[in-house]
Each structure stands twice: as structure tokens, then as C-alpha cells.
Amino acid sequence: MGCEIEPRVRVSTLVSMDWTMKLATAALFLGLTMVVTRDEDEGDMCLYEALSDTDAVLCKGLEVFYPELGNIGCMFVPDCNNYRQKITHWAEPIVKFPRALEGATYILVMVDPDAPSRSSPKAQFWRHWLVTDIKGTDIKKGKLQGQELSPYQPPSPPAQTGFHRYQFFVYLQEGKNISLHSKENKTRASWKMDKFLNRFHLSEPEASTQFMTQNYQDSPNYQTPGTGSSEPRDKPK
Fold first, then answer.
1. Res. 223 pLDDT band, cuts 50 70 90
2. Per residue in 166-179, pLDDT tens?
3. Residue 190 burial (CB < 10 Å; 0-12/13-18/19+)?
4. Cβ distance 97 to 140 under 8 Å?
5. Distance (Å, whole) CA 104 – CA 136
6. Average pLDDT score over the chain
7. Which residues pair with 131 in a beta bridge?
8. pLDDT tens digits, residue range 110-122?
9. If DSSP codes are grouped into helix, strand and coil, which group holds residue 51?
């Protein structure tokens, strides 16, 4: 009988260890499941909506990265986390053209064709950014070390003007000396972009994209503080 005690003790110990491992594994799995579910719930609260097929036609090979948002190309700026207000203060985005030719030089144009509104674009195009002499090796990596003819101006759509499109175009410069006329430098509104492109014989863009956003005060979730908005509404941007 003394010989039978030791095997029983070993079997009991093995069973106990087996159940302990199963419980530990189950607890770990439950914890991971809760983390994933929580992340999914948070993601559901912040909806990233793609542009319509009509507006998505412009999205060709260009990536635009803003802080917190990531690549916003071909998307609406989400109506959460104050993104539509934050984007009006953020510095210039990272613009990346992965298929850029390393020996080429490029021009970057950013415009708003919907100034002051898409239904009545009397100030089309609003010039937000114009950079020339960008090396292909740089824009390929998301670096814009060129000449700024128009420094970056963040999107600032006026209240009650609906959604605005913010469009980015990259053109092949081909050694041309690009400049703006003195009249063009006086204002960013009503920029004759077509005349500018024709003047320097710039044909179809090598890459392009756009995103859309509206004034954050037009959000259905926005609550007006105090007596109301103090946001200027006379200058479309």
C-alpha cells in the first residue's frame, strides 16, 4: 500500500496544476477580450467616414498626415475629439508621395475650391499652401524642404457654409522657375489656379487627394458657450 500513495499524490498534483493553468489562461483571455472590446467601443465613438465616389476621384497616390488623425486623404475629418477645431490650429501636415521619382522636382498646391461655400464658390480658389522645388527624394519620405511661395494656412471654414473640400496637388516642376505675380501675392482668395498652371505649362498632377471638413460650431454635438460664437465669419478660408 505504501507503494500506491506516491502515484496518487503525483496524479493529484498534476490535476491541480492543470486546472491552475487553465484558469490562468482563461483569465488572460478574458482580460485581452475586454481590452479589445473597449478599444472597439472607443473606435465606434469616433467615426472615420470616407468621401463619396464622386469626391474620391481626386484621390490618386498622395497621403496627407495630421497629428492624431493620421492619413486623412479621401476622408471627412471626424466629428469627435475636437478634431474639426484642432485642425484649424495645427501646423502643416506631412505630405507623402510614395511614387515620386528620386531625380525629379515637384510643386505642391493646397487649395479650397469651396470659398465661401460649395454652393456659392465666389472666392474659388482659396490658396492655402504653395511650395516649389521639392526634391523627389524628400516628398517620397514626407519631407517638404522646398521654397514656400505661400506659407501654410490651416483649414478654417466659416460657420454655416457647409463642408469644404481641401485639395492637394503635386505637379512635376521639370526645372521651371515658379513664381507668383505681385497681384497674386496680395490675396489668397479668388486665385486663378488654371491661369497659374497654364502660365508654367503644368499639365495633369502627378498625384492628388483631398479631405473635407466643416466649421466645428456647425456640428450637431457642439454646445455654444455663453451667449454664442465669437468666430469671425466674414473671411472664407
1. low
2. 999 999 999 999 99
3. middle
4. yes
5. 5
6. 83
7. 108, 148
8. 999 999 999 999 9
9. coil
Cα 28 vs. chain centroid, distance in angstroms?
36
Q: How far apart are CA 101 and CA 120, in angstroms?
A: 38
Residues 6+ apart with CB under 8 A from 32: none
Give me 7's grid cell. 502515484
Residues β-bridged to residue 147: 132
Q: Is pLDDT above 60 for 140?
A: yes
What is residue 18's predicted lDDT score, i.e. its pLDDT? 52
Pick from 48, 161, 51: which is nearest to 112 by CA?
161
Give the β-pairing of 126-135 and 105-112: antiparallel
- Residue 218 is given by DSSP the state G
CA 91 vs CA 38, 82, 125: distances in Å = 31, 16, 21
Which cell goes with 110?
493646397
Task: Tell me the HSE value of 167 on the side-chain side, using a 13 A CA sphere.
Answer: 21
Cα–Cα distances in Å, from 61 out to 54, 58, 100, 210? 17, 9, 10, 11
Spatial contact of 207 and 61, defined as CB atoms under 8 Å apart: yes
Using alpha carbons, list the distances in angstroms from residue 134 to 24, 61, 89, 116, 206: 56, 17, 24, 30, 13
Residues 83 and 154: their CA atoms lie apart, in Å, by 13
